[in-house]
């Protein structure tokens, strides 16, 4: 049990959580969906995201959703903030210690696929770790050799697609390529990512998926598409634009995520 887990249990109670949800840029409003919630500032929890990126929250929320006890991390720490690919390890270890068997990740991403437009959702079916960094570098045990086949749990993906069909929300599926950021991609880098077979690019998530699998959690991830990749449209890519456009995806995730949690 991590020190942070003990603090959380003291504040929010010892009943185990079923799942942890990580919210990406501009998606922190999803935290409003939690009932009977307790908010704990990250600053009180050792190892939780520091610094911060605008558009991200800085609280851990514990409460109920879809009849389950859930933790929501309203913001994440990114590799690009200081070059630590394992920045989310203490927070995710704490989630596992609190009982989370499932990890639901969200992010904002740029589309490489004409069919996936700003405002759309894309489930991650797989990823390409193009940043080349791995959060398990330095992990001394053989547990570091994590099998990444089906790392985006296929049952959870199928459930999310069925829920999308029921709620009339288009849910695409595709491969996410992790570029470190924080600069956006060049036009040439976007063309390369397309040739590598990716459908979307972003600056997060892949290291958390590796950590989630390392910790034995079932992992699911969904991108809110905020823009077309650099050079694929006339829109001007910026962090402000990402935050503004994320609202559309957030409205869909607000419906999709509670329905998915109910089925966990
Ligand atoms: N590239 C990388 N990350 C992103 C993008 C993008 O175009 N949009 C939102 N996050």
Automatic annotation (TrEMBL):
GO cellular component: cytoplasm
GO molecular function: purine-nucleoside phosphorylase activity
Top-level EC class as recorded in UniProt: transferase
The protein's Enzyme Commission number: 2.4.2.1
Cited InterPro entries: Nucleoside_phosphorylase_d, Nucleoside_phosphorylase_sf, Purine_phosphorylase
UniProt entry tagged with the keyword rRNA-binding: no
Pathway: Purine metabolism; purine nucleoside salvage
Protein name: Purine nucleoside phosphorylase
Species this chain originates from: Devosia limi DSM 17137
Native organism taxonomy: Bacteria, Pseudomonadati, Pseudomonadota, Alphaproteobacteria, Hyphomicrobiales
């Amino acid at each position: 049990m991590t020190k942070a887990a003990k603090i959380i249990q003291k504040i929010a109670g010892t009943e185990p959580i079923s799942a942890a949800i990580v919210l990406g840029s501009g998606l922190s409003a999803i935290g409003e969906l939690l009932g009977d919630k307790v908010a704990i500032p990250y600053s009180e929890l050792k190892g939780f995201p520091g610094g911060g990126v605008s558009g991200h929250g800085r609280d851990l929320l514990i409460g109920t959703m879809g009849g389950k006890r859930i933790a929501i991390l309203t913001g994440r720490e990114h590799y690009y903030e200081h070059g630590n690919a394992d920045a989310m390890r203490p927070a995710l270890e704490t989630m596992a210690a609190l009982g989370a068997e499932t990890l639901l990740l969200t992010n904002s991403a740029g589309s490489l696929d004409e069919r996936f437009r700003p405002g759309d959702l894309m489930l991650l079916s797989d990823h390409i770790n193009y940043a080349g960094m791995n959060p398990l570098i330095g992990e001394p045990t053989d547990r570091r050799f994590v099998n990444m086949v089906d790392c985006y749990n296929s049952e959870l993906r199928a459930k999310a697609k069925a829920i999308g069909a029921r709620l009339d929300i288009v849910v695409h599926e595709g491969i996410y390529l992790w570029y470190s950021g924080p600069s956006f991609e060049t036009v040439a880098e976007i063309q390369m990512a397309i040739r590598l077979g990716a459908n979307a690019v972003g600056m997060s998530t892949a290291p958390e998926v590796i950590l989630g699998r390392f910790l034995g959690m079932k992992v699911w991830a969904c991108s809110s598409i905020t823009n077309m990749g650099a050079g694929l449209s006339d829109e001007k890519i910026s962090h402000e634009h990402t935050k503004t456009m994320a609202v559309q995806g957030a409205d869909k995730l607000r419906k999709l995520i509670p329905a998915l949690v109910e089925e966990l």
